[in-house]
């Protein structure tokens, strides 16, 4: 009896030991499952990261291609802008007559101030000319008209070189009918030059036409001479009705007398 009881107790102990191993086995199984899940998650994360990086790379390549194309286009545009002959103004060549195209007369206003008004032209002091809207930078013109030494920025004009007979801006505009000169200060003439240069720069974005008579190196040379001239001297100009033609400012025939910036240091004419 005692032996039987002892055997039963041994079996219970062994069974108890086997049962005690179950939690450990269960834990190991879950660890293995967790490891598999972690591996799957890491693999998924890696694939997702590769996918994102791949698309980022594609987008970056696309952006770089667009930048290169834009830069190439800008380069081609600039080459065209500054290519010799691509932007030659009308009548800029010398020694050859040619058939005029309609655009060559874009800054012309007829043969009289009355005709100029009927054509919708207006007098622009900055240019000393009657001009159609296509050849006027309204903002720059207004700035010039208020950049003088007067109380409201107006400029003073005279009918003589000694500045004894003052005339109004309207009187100046009507001189286009007679071809007579008007006289101004050295400062007025310098401002005329610098404002015309600004117009040459601004016209690229404002779609304004620069008068062909100013779209030439000879006018820059003329202005250079004015800038370094004696500022106490008087300057004289004539008023134009047609600004589409160019005449180099080497000398001018006015009322039987030839005026030249070289031979006559007091008089400087705008071409």
TrEMBL record:
Protein name, UniProt field: Uncharacterized protein
InterPro entries: Phomopsin_biosynth_assoc (IPR053008)
Top-level taxon in the UniProt lineage: Eukaryota
């Amino acid at each position: 009896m005692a032996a039987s009881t002892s055997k039963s107790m041994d079996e219970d102990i062994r069974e108890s030991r086997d049962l005690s191993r179950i939690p450990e086995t269960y834990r190991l199984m879950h660890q293995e499952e967790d490891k598999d899940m972690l591996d799957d998650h890491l693999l998924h994360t890696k694939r997702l990261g590769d996918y994102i990086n791949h698309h980022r790379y594609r987008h970056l390549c696309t952006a770089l291609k667009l930048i290169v194309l834009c830069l190439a286009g800008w380069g081609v545009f600039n080459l065209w802008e500054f290519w010799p002959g691509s932007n030659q103004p009308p009548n800029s060549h010398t020694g050859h007559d040619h058939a005029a195209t309609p655009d060559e007369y874009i800054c012309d206003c007829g043969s009289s101030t009355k005709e100029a008004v009927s054509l919708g032209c207006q007098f622009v002091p900055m240019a000393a000319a009657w001009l159609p809207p296509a050849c006027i930078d309204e903002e720059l013109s207004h700035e010039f008209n208020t950049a003088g030494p007067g109380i409201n920025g107006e400029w003073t004009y005279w009918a003589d070189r000694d500045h004894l007979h003052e005339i109004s801006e309207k009187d100046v505009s009507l001189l286009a009918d007679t071809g007579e000169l008007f006289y101004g200060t050295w400062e007025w003439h310098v401002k005329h030059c610098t404002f015309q240069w600004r117009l040459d720069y601004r016209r690229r974005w404002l779609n304004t036409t620069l008068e062909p008579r100013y779209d030439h190196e000879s006018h820059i040379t003329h202005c250079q001479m004015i800038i370094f001239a004696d500022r106490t001297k008087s300057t004289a100009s004539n008023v134009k009705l047609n600004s589409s033609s160019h005449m180099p400012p080497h000398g001018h025939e006015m009322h039987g007398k030839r005026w030249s910036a070289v031979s006559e240091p007091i008089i400087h004419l705008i071409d």
